[in-house]
Design brief:
The two termini are 15 Å apart. It contains six helices and twelve strands. The model has no long low-confidence stretch (mean pLDDT 91). It is 21% helix and 24% strand.
Amino acid sequence: MLTILHISDLHFGPAYLPHVGEAVLRAAEELAPDLVVASGDFTQRAKAAQFADARKFLEKLPQVPRVVTPGNHDVPLYRVLERLLRPYANYREHIADELDSVLTTDDAVIVSINTTSPLLAITNGRIDRWQIEFAARAFREAPASAARIVVAHHHFAPAPDYDDRNDVMWRAREALDRFNELGVELILGGHLHRAYIGNSLDIYRSKTPAAGIIVVQSGTTTSRRGRAREREKNSFNLVQIGPEVILITHYMYFDQLGGFAPISRHTFPRRHLHYLQPQSTPEPVVGRPE
C-alpha cells in the first residue's frame, strides 16, 4: 500500500501559524508516509526569507520522496519587474528547480504540473496543452497497475460551496477530459483554502464514458487563511492506495487537542474495479503503525 501525506498552502510569512506547523510535523512522524505531496503556496509573498523558512519546514518532514508544485503566492505579485523577468527564481533556489516533473514509484506515477501563470492568470492559473501532453507521455509509459496521479496547485473542479463556481483554471475541462482518457485516478491540489474530496463528475460531465477522477483538495495546512467551511481552520489529507481501494482521510487541527485529528474518511474503488469489493477497505491509519 502506498501512503501519501498531502499538505498545501503553507503560506510562510505573516499568515503562517508556527504552533500548527509543529503539529503537522508531529502528525507526519506518526503517520509515517511513503511520499509527501505539497501542492503549492509555500509562501505569502514569494520572498527569499519566506522560501527559506518553507524549505526548513520541508526538511523536517519524513525523509521520503517529495512532490512539489508552485502556487500563485510563490510568484511575486507587487514586485512587477521580478514577476515579469524571473518569477520563479526564489522558488527554484529554495524548493525545486523543476516546475513540471514526474515521480515514478513501484505503485504510482505522479505528474506535477505548474499551473501558475505570472503574466496571464496570476490568481486563477492555467494549464497549457503541452503540459497535458507532458502528462500523457508519462502515463502512457506507466505500468497497468500503477496509480496515475496529477498534482497541481489550482483547482480543476471547485468545491460545492465555493463562492464562484466558474472561477477555475483556463483549459480545466479539456485537461479533465484528457486525464480521464489516460486513466488518471487522483488529482491532488490546494488553492481554495478549503478541503474538498469528491469526484470530477460532481462538477463536470465527462466527454468520455469513464468513472471520473477523484479530486482531493487540501485546505490551508498551516496558515490563518482558511475559507468557507474551513474558515480559520487548518487541514491536510492522508491518501492510502491499495490494490483494490483508495482511502482518503481528512485531518483537521483542533486547539483543544493541540494537534490534528481525522474528521472524515472517503473510500473509492480503484479505477479498474469500478465498484467496492466485499471487505476491500484497508484499515485506516490514524497514528504510527505498529
